[in-house]
Amino acid sequence: MKIKLLISVVICSLFFADLSYGQWTVATTVVTGQTFPAISVAGQNVVWIARGTSGVPLVYRSTNGGTNFTNVTGTGISLDLFCIWARDADVAFVGNGGGAGGTGGNASFYKTTNGGTTWTLVASTGGTLAFFNGITFSKLMPSFGIAQSDPPTGSGQPYYVSKTTDGGTTWTLTNPPGITGEASAANSIVVLDNMWYGFGLNASSRVYFTTNGGTNWTIGTLGIAGTFVSGFAMSDNKTLGIAATQSSLPSIARTTNGGTTWATVNVGTGFTGYCTTKWIEGTNTCYISCDGAGATGGAIKKSTDGGATWTTMTTGGITGVQHMEFTRIGTVVYGYAVTSLGTVLKLVDNVTGIEPINNLIPSQYKLGQNYPNPFNPSTTIEFSIPISGNVSLKVYDALGKEVASILDGYRTAGNYSEQFIGTELTSGVYYYQLISGDYKQTKKFMLVK
Q: Please, which residues have CB within 8 angstroms of residue 413's CB and are 6 or more apart in sequence?
């Protein structure tokens, strides 16, 4: 009897341990009654939310994994906020809609370096019809990002795309060519690196992107119902992508050739309304959310094969998901989503099949120097393994104590890029070490906060 009981306990423990991954749970509820909240995830425990109504901005921040949120609206920002991107617990960017209620105008975006106590103006668009749809940085090249607005002088006119190559310290304005009758769509911004970035359009089921750093721009026709592209996501292999409009669900568009052509995929019945889409860098895993009231079985779906097939994730009966964002640390994904009623959902998920950054097989092992270095709080580490096998990439402090495990698992031969976020570490010198087979290499880097 005791043996049977022990076996039962072990089986149950394994069962519930497995369930701890891949399920969305309610973290908390922030202030209600705000339209189209935007969320940003700066680490496993650092989450920012931007909201607003009737011209009043609101910003909230959590540093304990969504358990509590603090109002960090501070001083220096104005109007409703419709987009946010946070680097860590101190540095974040927000953009407004140009007028009360997001009616458009001389839109502005702002930066804080002290956790929201004070905000400084980065730039304003000018014009009377601008609206910041997104401020987004590359997950693989975190020093590069864009702030994208509707055409300041009206649909069909040149767009506003401000670029940074130094993590948001300085910005350079560019003006991609306008498209007749088109503005752009909130929270549909995709930034893979300094060459590939783009956004969704608002008056047709099309996306607009560049593959050469803004020299040329391409229109991708999705071929699905609806007009406002509320969801757009791409794999960092630059070939796979998904997109959807405000009314196309349960149908979405999927590309396998970098956006040149798109095919229609049905994600499943009962999935309706406005949606957002996100892709986990370095993997074939992507997520899609919806705000349809009928999605009581789960308002978020997941694909592990690049958007070809989808499974429903449980959300505890919570619907109305407006926006979601993720961060990947090794093989663990931390996701947060926010609803129109202010409910915050949290996910801890495992991902598999981390993909190489290209198809080239290296001839030797190599561990690259991280960039940027010094860094705060995120940096990129690239490495190459010529033989498939188990790979360990860990971080140690100056005394040799392990402080973080970036990855520890099987990888096929190839070239890889991993992001390390040191939000919870103090300033100082650290070491990162790669072990694969008989190869072992250690390099030094510096975190400066």
A: 361, 362, 385, 386, 387, 388
